[in-house]
Structures are given as C-alpha cells and as structure tokens.
Amino acid sequence: MYHALGYGTMMYLQAIMTLEPREVETAVTALKQAIRVCVKLRKSTKFGRPNYDKYTDEEVHAELCYAESLLLRSILTFLQDENLISFIKGAMRIKQCYKSYQECYKILERRRFQDERMKMHFESGVRMGIGAFNLMISMLPPRILRLLEFVGFTGDKASGLADLEVSSNLHNGLRAPLASIILMSYHAYISQVLGNGDGNINFASSILKPCLEQFPKGALFLLFAARIQEVNGQLDEALGLYEQSIDSQSSWRHLHHLCYWQMMWCSAFKCEWLFAMKYAEVLSRESSWSKSTYLYLKGIFMLMSEDQSAAMTEHVVAIFTKVPELKVRVAGKSLPIEKFAIRRVQRFFAQGNRLTLPALEVIYIWNGFAIIYKSAPLAEPILQLIEAKVAEVSGDGQSKTQADDLGLCLLLKAMCLVCRRDSAGAEACLRELVSMEKRLVEDKHLVPYAVAEMGFLALRDGKPREAQSHLEAAL
C-alpha cells in the first residue's frame, strides 16, 4: 500500500514539475493503482456507526492512504483535460477526499491505538492532510471561500497551520518531513510572493533545522535553507546553498530548475544582469513550464545590461518575437505572467524596440523589493538606475507613453526609498504618481499600485486607520 502511494507521489511530483502530458498520464496511472490497493484494504462500513476499535492498523492506514492518493489524483484531473467535465470530476474527487480525511480525524480521536508508534505515523498524516486543506482553502478569494464553506469545506488558516505544526513536530512520524515542507513553502515562498505579510521566516528556520540535521544533503531542504537566506537579504549565502542543492543530486533535474529560478532573482537583486540572463537562458532551454516567461526574462535582463549594441538589440528582438508563440495554458487557463510578458513585448515593438526598466518592473511584480528591504545597500545601484532613467524620460517629450514611463520610475523610486527607510520621500513619489492619473495612457494600474503602497507605508509607520483608508481606495 505504501509502496504504491510512494511511487504515485513521486510520479505526481514529476508531473507537476514538468506539466508534460506524458508525465501526467504516467502519474495518473500510478495513482489509480494506489487507489485500487487502498480500496481493497479499507474497512467497509455501509450501515450504522462504525466501531473504530475494531479497525485493524492496516485498515486505518488504508483510509489515510486512500485520502492522499485521491487528493493527488484529483489535482491531476485539472491538468489532464481542460473541459468542464474534468473540472467537475476533480471537484467531486476533492470532496470525496475531504470526507475521507474527516473520517481519519474521527478515527484519530476515537480509536484506542495499541501501538503508539503506529498512532504517531497515522496522526502525522491526518494532521498534515487536514492542515493542508485548511491552509489551501483559506488562501482562496473570499467569494470562492464562502461558496466552498457552504458545501462543507473549511478554510481556517490558523487551524491549518496549527495542525501542520503538530504533524511537523512528530519528528519520527512518517509524514512529518512533508508537513515541514508545506509549512516552509508557505512561510518562505507563498506568503512572500503573494505579499500576505504573515510569513514567519524565523519559524521556517526552526522547522528546517531538525530536517537538515536528519537529511544534511537533502536537495529540497538545502533549497529551503537557501530561500530563507534569500528572504533575509543574504544573497551570497543563498547562492552558495542553491549550488549545494544542485550538487546534492542529479536524478531530478527539475529541482535544479527551481534553484536556477531563485538564483536568477538573486542575481537580479544584485543588478548582475548577465548572470540573471544566464539562468533564464538555462531555464528556457531545459524547463518546459513556461518558456514564454523564461524568454521574456532573458530578453529584459539583456536590455538592462551595459551592452546596448545593435547586435544585442537584434538578439533581444529575435527572443521577443518567440514570446507570444510559446505561451501555454494550465488547467485551461493562460498564465497571468505570460499575458503580462506578451503585452510588454507588444509595447517593446510599438515603441521602437524600447522598454523602461523592465527587469525592475518584474522585480516589483514578484514582490522582490520585500527582499531588497532586508538589505538596504542592495537598493543603492537600483536607485541610481532609476534616477538616470527619470532624467532620460523627462527629456523625451515625443514619446506617447512618457507619463507611463515616468510613473513607473516614480513607483520604483518610491520602493527604493522605502528600502532606505525614507518614508517621506517614498510618499512624495507615490503622491506625484497619483497626481499623474489623467496623463497615463496604457499603465492605468500604476495608480492603484501607488495607493496600495501608501497604505503599506502607513501600516509600516504605525498608522492603521490611514493604511485601511488607502488600501480600501486601491481596491
């Protein structure tokens, strides 16, 4: 049973990392087999209230493995096909899986386990599953969250994090490392990129410590160690740990791609554009996740480099020409970052092969200034680039998008001043941008961005009411 689940999980991870139809089909086949094995071993209780004390250890764990296999299978359903029927099937499987996890929770509370070690393994899995469900659902938009709660799902973030922490602290539990990975993913990645503001890096470090002691050469744990250093603004240390993660294994090339992705951003934060371009180029060759995004990033890093020769521009033109052709759809939807990249490529050609600080714009979009804020000296070379561009844009009265370009510069300058702890200067830039609203031609989104940043600035300065006013106005 656990062999089938383990194999299915490995195939699932490979499918998620590649999104290639062949890999997805292989994972689906493996998980179907795991589900069949679990169904044979599950306790059948068609009528009456079940007596959990009569369940064998094998039947108890079969219920848990069934829930996990069904969850992974349902997620792959969304990737396998893009039609409405697949979405309905996936939703029904998730509902069935959630019921199975709830059944496991009842077993954990009511069954008298004879073997404490067996109970520990079971509890680590139940709390990991219930916790992950709560955390995942709690991060959905409020409208969707209310609908899901109406049909029986719960989305309590605090409860989800608490269950995951309990599972993680069962250090010898079978699924404790997986719970730790979910917690670290939330605190070090999701909360940082999405900008929820509630990620706890110190807590992530404390979770990581026992994992690294147990698996000192674990590629995934080295990846998280690097990410934590990166979020703390220690970019050189992060780059070294990403290299260690890459060197620790060669079987899963897709994990290397995660490292290259983060090394690309570390280089960009340091304004080492050619190094960032090198990592983007590797990703564009080897990773099939979003070649359109990788090529756009490669092109904009080249645009930011000191070499602005005709040959370099010609190379960028050739790269940008391919960006719209390589866009993909995941679960029937286009990727927002690819939509953005395609719009910017169109603007590049419309403006005579020119973009304004495109790499800094993408750093802002990916919430990269939150990392730069942790190490203020990183903001100095960026600020110099922005001020030089402001002078250039201000003298370009012929450009139709002069106000848009200047507005972007003001937004980026404000973020740099925030990193320098110059709140007054940052607010002045943001207010100037808001005053330009009627002059903006294409980038109308810059104004709500600026208003939101004023809210975050007020919140950082201990002015909650002013922050609330700005954030509500930005919606």
What's this entry about, in short?
With about 475 residues, the chain is an all-alpha fold. Helix content is about 75%, strand content about 0%.
Any overview of this molecule?
This protein is mostly helical and 475 residues long. Helices cover 74% and strands 1% of the residues. A two-stranded antiparallel sheet has the order 1-2. The mean pLDDT is 89.
> Which residues sit in consecutive blocks of at least 5 with pLDDT less than 50?
none
Terminal residue distance: 49 Å
Provide the helix percentage. Answer: over 70%
**What overall geometry do the principal axes of the alpha carbons give?**
elongated
> Radius of gyration over alpha carbons?
25 Å
Number of helices: 23
Question: What pattern of helices and strands is seen along the backbone?
Answer: HHHHHHHHHHHHHHHEEHHHHHHHH
Mean pLDDT: 89
Largest sheet: 2 strands, antiparallel
Number of strands: 2
Structural class of the helices, strands and pairings? mainly alpha
Approximately what portion of the residues adopt beta-strand conformation?
A: under 5%
- The side-by-side strand order for the widest beta sheet comes to 1-2
Q: What are the key terms here?
A:
475 residues; mainly alpha; two-stranded antiparallel ribbon; 2 strands; elongated
Chain-wise SSE layout:
Layout: H1 2-18, H2 21-41, H3 57-80, H4 84-110, H5 116-138, H6 142-150, H7 157-169, H8 176-194, H9 201-214, H10 219-231, H11 235-247, H12 253-269, H13 273-286, H14 291-304, H15 310-322, E1 329-330, E2 333-334, H16 336-350, H17 358-365, H18 369-372, H19 379-394, H20 402-419, H21 423-435, H22 446-460, H23 464-474
Helix pairs in contact: 1-2, 1-3, 2-3, 3-4, 3-5, 4-5, 5-7, 5-8, 7-8, 8-9, 8-10, 9-10, 10-11, 10-12, 11-12, 12-13, 13-14, 14-15, 19-20, 20-21, 20-22, 21-22, 22-23
